[in-house]
From TrEMBL, chain A:
Gene3D superfamilies from the UniProt entry: 3.30.70.20
InterPro entries: 3Fe4S_ferredoxin, Fe-S_cluster_ET
Alphabetical keyword list: 3Fe-4S, Electron transport, Iron, Iron-sulfur, Metal-binding, Transport
Cofactor list: [3Fe-4S] cluster
Protein name in the entry: Ferredoxin
TrEMBL record, chain B:
CDD domains xref list: CYP105-like
Gene3D superfamilies found in the cross-reference section: Cytochrome P450 (1.10.630.10)
Keyword S-adenosyl-L-methionine appears in the UniProt entry: no
Alphabetical UniProt keywords: Heme, Iron, Metal-binding, Monooxygenase, Oxidoreductase
Record's protein name: Cytochrome P450
Top-level lineage group: Bacteria
Amino acid sequence: MKIIADTDRCVGAGQCVLTEPALFDQSEDDATIIVLNETPEGELIEKAREAVHVCPSQALSLEE
Amino acid sequence: MTTAEKHEFPMARTCPFAPPPAYEEIREGEPVSRVRLPDGGWAWVVSRHEDVRTVLNDRRFSADRQHPDFPALVKGEAASRRPDEERMLIAMDAPEHGPARKAVLGEFTVRRLEALRPRIQEIVDGQIDALLGGPRPGDLVDSLSLPVPSLVICEMLGVPYADHEFFQEHTVKVIKQSTPPEERWAAMVAIQGYMADLIAEKEKNPPDDLLGRQIVKLRADGTYRRTALAGMGLLLLVAGHETTANMISLSTVAFLRNPEQLAMIKADPGKTLNAVEEMLRYFTIIDVATARLCVEDMEVGGQLIRAGEGVLTLGYSANRDPRAFENPDELDIERGARHHVAFGFGPHQCLGQNLARMELQIVFDTLFGRVPTLEPAMDVDELPFKDDANIYGLYQLPVTW
């Protein structure tokens, strides 16, 4: 599985970081998403799914 | 196809802890339907969770509140619009909106806010000390709900807290639905003038606070303009002020009415953040603030909305939509409520949301930890709920312990 982030759509709400700081961070400059690990495994897969679910700009998707 | 308006907007509540009953009727009957507005015009209301998210995340719906066709939620408001005035962030559309928002957003990252946690804890402790040292019963709104977010946002921006009564007084006028349009405009001008003066002073030797850092950053980018920063400062000040305050008061009442929910966060503070999300969903205090103007025909929930028509997204209805939340009228801190739209959705979603989350989390853990015998000092149904404000809340909350 691969995490796809659309940085143009990202509104910098930080919901992904709150969901799983091991997978996501925010740019210090404009708060947009930085994916730390694009190919999560194990328990992190569920966290990636939750991040997609709660993203307030639908900027995240998963490639199964 | 609907042509007539069955409902007038705004719709009345019958219970302080629930949306107007008409919301359910609309959501389950005709989820995208027309309502009559206070100034005689009409607009679409969108009531289902999925449809609300669609509208708020689509460029075909404009946020330009100064546009003559933007739906007016308050009678006479349209007449006080200034289409030539500079737009604040909340009224901007793409492509102008993104860069303006991103210029300030770095101040609100999760990491940056986490660094403020100890100072916010100190502020909360100080206010609870004052409450406990004062008379019983005391007013929670005056002693805790208002000063905490107010002190925090003032410190962040670099606004002297000594001036908070001035902008508090004017903010109330801006928010109250019964304020005559001219008076509302005058109040806006007064706070805007205050902010512009403050920023002019900071320009001389930009201090290390949010406004000072913005001056430095925007100057470096070659995009600095005082009026634009004053608008941004004003927005942050007002938004960071009333909203969190009302959530503190309302949630405190909700916790005290639901002791089994309160017991869960006291036993495990790891659950407090989930409780915060549930409170945000449960109250959705900014229900009527999210309006849009359709600028290109689009179908929403099976209904064609045409360019030039106004749309109100009923966030409170969306957050009580059983399609998105099981048993939506129950307060359940363990439900997993993070997909609520209490902060809005899409490009305009509240930029201070993580600051609000942290403030609420610290307040609940500290208040109920330090004052375990806290209780309302009057009948909950008799409390002065803000039925007449654009942001729901409580004017006072007498408590004893």
